[in-house]
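My current task is to audit a protein record that another person submitted. Alongside the sequence sits a line of tokens, each denoting a local backbone shape. Where you disagree with what is written, explain briefly why. This is what I was given:
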Amino acid sequence: MDAEKIQKDIDSLLTLMNDDMESLGATIKTVTFGFADGQEDRKAIDELFNWSEEHLFRVIKICNSRSLIQNVSNDYSRIHLTEEGQSRAISVKHGKNRSYELGASMQIATLNVNGPAQVGNGNTQNIHNVFNQLVKNIEDSSASDEDKAEAKSRLTSLLEHPLVTSIIGSVAGSIPGLF
């Protein structure tokens, strides 16, 4: 099957799950989807996409193997959207480039380290360090206490936005001096 169609169908499934979850005002930890024959989510998929059962289960298996969803049953009756799956759904919905997911810039190499090291792109530790430094620079600035408080308040608002949270995860809540 065409790889691009599979990616598109994965995006469609994840977006449907995320939209359904958001319409309920629920979270990934509180919603379970059912794609076994006769379940409501399966009926919605059948009506919207008209996929064969074989194709639906193939898409679900791929999503599960990539940790985009978590299948906690043998018959696809209890499936959870993961943070990664929700992040991808939001990215798709807002048109973000997802070429990184398709392995467009992947390199495999050997790395020998004889001391502290950090490797990665979009690495959580880097993000944490950047925001920690920003908060420190705000505190150390010669601005008034009122301006410092406003700057930190705006930074807090940014980090609490659901889209930002879905992209950088729980890093936002662990920055001292903000929360």
Observations:
- Residues 98-106 have pLDDT under 50 and may be disordered.
- Strands lie at 69-71, 79-81.
